[in-house]
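Readers outside the structure-tokenisation community will struggle with the description of the input data as it stands. What matters is that the chain and its backbone geometry are given together, residue for residue. For illustration, here is how one protein appears when written out as sequence plus structure tokens:

…
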Amino acid sequence: MDLTPASDEKIASLKTLTTVIYALYALALLGFGTTAIVAIVLNYIKREDAQGTWLESHFTWQIGTFWWGLLWLVVGAITWIILLGWLVWGVAGIWFIYRIAKGWLNLNDNKPMPLQ
């Protein structure tokens, strides 16, 4: 584990990558679901690089967004037959948009994500 502070260059590179990952999640909303898979893989590959920086919270936020979103997608699919799935998908879609927007805005302002 590297205990030295992250360089400005490393932070800039991680911030660019985090921006790309938010964009990949946003593209998933337009029907390009494979972009979310690419995004989650990148999250896990680069998560260690972000450890100890303010960007670590964005990686945690993005990973949580993916897994909770996938859970609600599955719940919606299971309940679709009784028409409840449409409501689940609608609420989950709004929640997903909120998570992407909030994360992207905080990233733009160089703020970490508040993690509960």
